[in-house]
Structure formats: C-alpha cells, structure tokens
C-alpha cells in the first residue's frame, strides 16, 4: 500500500504549486515513492474526520501503515529519513541538511507569510499601502542573508537535499511579487529546483487536480 | 568535550527566558548533557566569524566535534536524536513527536511572531491600535485548535517529548499578553512545562547570564 496524502480539492492558487501538498509530492517524487492522494474540500477540512488527522484543519497529511502525521516539514523529513535520496549519508552533512529545512520553515518563511498575509488579508485596510514596504523589507533582510550564504553554489550545502527542497518551496511563494528577481543567485537557485524532474512531476500532478476542476484562466 | 552553544551576551528580554538559547538549554538539560556557552554581543552576531556559523546572524548555534549547526528546531532535533529522553523509541510515536516540533515552529509560532512584531516593531505606527486585534485573532485561531487537540491530556502525544518542549517554548512568548489565560488547558500545559526540573535549570542558567550583566529592574 503506497502512502496516502491529502491535498486541496480546489487549491486557492488554482494550481500554481503553492499549496503545501506540492512540497510533499516533490519529496515523494525525489525518492521515487508512488503515492495516493485524497482530495479534501474546504468544508471537509474543518470537519471532525479531517481534524482528527490534522488538528489545524489544513493539508497535507500523510498516512502509511499505522502512521498518520501532518505538518509539511515533518512529512518531508519522515520521507527523507525513511527513503534514500533527500539526505546525505554522512551524519554531520545530514544534520546540516535538516538545519536548512528548519531555516526555510522557521526563519525564511515567517516573514514571507507575513508579507503574503499583508497582501491577501489586509489588502483592503487603510494601512495597507503604507505598511507593505516595511513588511517587504523584513523579507529582504532574510533574502540578503540567504543570498550571501548561497553565494555561487548550486545548493545550500553541497548536493541537493531536503533542505533545498524546502527552501526552494518557501521562496517560490515570492515569485509573483518580483522580489526574488532582486537576488540573481536566489532566482537561479529557485529555477534549479523547478527544473528538477521530480519537481516537474509534482507540479504537474497538483496542476492536473486543479485544471480538472477549475476553469482555466 | 561538551557541546558549545551560543547565547546573547545581553538578552533583549533581560532574562525572561524568551531568547531561543533557552530552548536548546532545556533540551540539553532534559537529556542530561552538560554544555558550554559562548556569549555573543549584538555587534559580534553580525560579524563574519558568527555569520559563518549562523547565516542569519542570530543565536543559538551548536558545535560539537566536527558538527556546527544553527536553527533552534534543528539543534533540538539533533540533541533529541543523538541522546535518549526527548523522543519515544517507537518509530511512529517518534514521527508524531517530530510532527509537533514542526507544528510548534511552522504553524503556531508564525502568528505569534507576527503578533510580537506588531507590538514591538509597529507599536508607533498609526495603524497599531486598529491592527493589533486582527493579528491577535490569528493567534487565537491557532490556540483554539491546539486547545481542542490537547483536551485534558498532559502532553500532546502521550509522554513529554521534544514536541512539547518546542510547543511550550513557543507558547511562553504569549505569557505577557495574557492571551494564554483564555485557554485554561493551554496555560496549565505551559505551567507543566515550566515546572520540569530541566526547564528550571535552563531558565536559571540563562537568567544568571543576564542578571550578571544587566542591572535588575
């Protein structure tokens, strides 16, 4: 029995790959693990059956055998630890790759989410225009530091790892803002991630769900 | 040689335990691992020597033998995986405990940080009073869900784990706001964490650094 993940029945982004199941799909594709998808509507996400799986009423979740977990970072780490392909064998290199996973999710993503919230949830507020540049600058602080660390390297710590998978996924949310283009090495880094065959398969799979159900725009 | 961590020479909170080295100290105390601390000034944090260790110019870092990592979540996970006491032996229970670590850092902490930013960084802005309740409600959404999941349990998944260590640490930042008191089981949960001897030792150790260098208020 392959693992089962959950994904939006209709992703809020209409299939641009920003829903977090894409991260999990990508990890599964990198390790060559086939999987099944259970689609969940916005209504069903807040109902007891799904809340039992995911206490915050979100996607994705991951079920395999007797294991049921949620939280994208945890799922990707579980996939990376239980299959070869996303973490180096050397123990120290492995700990560093996991460090980049946490850095993506807990240092780089929070200001990006705050920026996304400012655009999505506070767009109609009287302070929106004045506040947005402040929030954008908090994102730039992080991008500048990340760009310096990446330098001319292809990946954050030697070879591609779950850390890069997560960092690229987090940065992808900035694409529509154009902010990524201010950092040439970061936009090339993200493009390298998107060019991976496993990413493409993951992207196409989530897109198929959405184009099958939403009219093309 | 015991591991070496870094901490603020002077913590911005003056020793209230909110600086993230407290999380790492707590983890080290739970597994009974002694450690050394290198204090870093705000200036030194942004200098090349420290930026080489921590690309985002923050604390804590963790060095042991040939390994140097940053990012609190990664450090706590590394401690939990390399010593007994913070993760269950059963593989599925282990994955669930790690899930709670990520949930603390990537689902519960971001709105709490946004709330903290609203109070600290945007306190003087014209929108501050109007915006703060909106941001507080985003925190409440998460706390309500977390409170439902915790229910009458002592810990999030059976016995105390690195997941609880991280969740309690994340929730502690809300204490001054009084928001935690709206959720009786969550404030009791945080109090249970604070009552652990390992937490107390960690708290006292970070406090000693700060009271030794800052005048008492």
UniProtKB/TrEMBL annotation, chains A, B:
Task: Specify the domain of life of the species encoding this protein.
Answer: Bacteria
Domain named GST N-terminal is located at 8-87
A Pfam family that the UniProt record links to this protein: GST_N
Residues annotated as signal peptide: none
* Every GST C-terminal domain range: 90-217
Q: State the protein's name.
A: Glutathione S-transferase
Taxonomic placement: Bacteria, Pseudomonadati, Pseudomonadota, Alphaproteobacteria, Hyphomicrobiales
